[in-house]
Design a protein that fits this description.
The chain has about 70 residues and is mainly alpha-helical. It has 2 helices and no strands.
């Protein structure tokens, strides 16, 4: 979960900077930076869960050569 939180902080900073540079508005930049990373962070969490499950299934003892 720590990885997800640090990703969210980085994403917030990038999203705010890009939105602010595109619009010149602190309000719009702030709104975009709050909404987009929040949604993306949740998506990232489930993305990581999917890949962890996929990788753990790939290395099961039954799949190893004898």
């Amino acid at each position: 979960m720590t990885k997800t939180i640090t990703f969210a902080m980085m994403h917030f900073t990038v999203a705010f900077t890009v939105a602010y540079l595109l619009t010149g508005s602190l309000v719009v930049g702030g709104a975009v930076a709050l909404v987009e990373p929040a949604i993306n962070t949740v998506a990232f969490y489930f993305h990581e869960m999917f890949w962890q499950r996929r990788e753990s299934k790939a290395v099961q003892p039954s799949s190893l050569p004898v």
